[in-house]
């Protein structure tokens, strides 16, 4: 087995757990909190649960990005970023960049402090739900594009 194959395995597993985690949070955790907690307690409950798996999300996002960039470098695929029919590669990088910024910059430097002192916890929880729904839709479009594109559909 060569390094490209290993990178592909790492990439698929990392994306599986990364986007699977986003789906779980969006479609299971947040609705469960919405139905079981009072409006004032939802944000705190989410923060308590999220704190237990945020480190895993960081690992999967890092592994997904590192393995993806390694495959692009190793196979000399940089020129694909200049061709529109490889839009799905742009989508993968853009999605990775959004999650990397959120997990490593926005959340630790701004968002945790902001949410801990929220004067509008219900509105903030609803906003987080909307953002998660937008992100999972973008992730599913990206996944469909990447799977189809890497197999010659586009």
TrEMBL record:
Chain ranges passing through the membrane: 12-33, 53-73, 85-110, 131-153
Q: Which domain of life is it from?
A: Bacteria
Q: Which UniProt keyword terms apply here?
A: Membrane, Transmembrane, Transmembrane helix
* Stated name of the protein: Putative membrane protein
């Amino acid at each position: 087995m060569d390094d490209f194959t290993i990178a592909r395995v790492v990439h698929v597993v990392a994306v599986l757990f990364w986007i699977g985690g986003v789906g779980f949070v969006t479609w299971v955790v947040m609705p469960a909190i919405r139905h079981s907690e009072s409006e004032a307690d939802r944000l705190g409950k989410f923060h308590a649960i999220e704190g237990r798996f945020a480190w895993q999300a960081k690992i999967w996002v890092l592994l997904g990005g590192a393995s993806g960039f390694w495959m692009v470098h190793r196979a000399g695929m940089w020129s694909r970023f200049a061709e529109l029919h490889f839009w799905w590669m742009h989508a993968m990088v853009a999605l990775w960049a959004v999650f990397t910024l959120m997990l490593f910059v926005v959340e630790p430097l701004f968002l945790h402090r902001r949410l801990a002192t929220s004067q509008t916890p219900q509105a903030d929880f609803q906003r987080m739900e909307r953002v998660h729904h937008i992100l999972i839709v973008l992730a599913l479009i990206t996944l469909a594009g990447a799977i189809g594109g890497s197999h010659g559909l586009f």
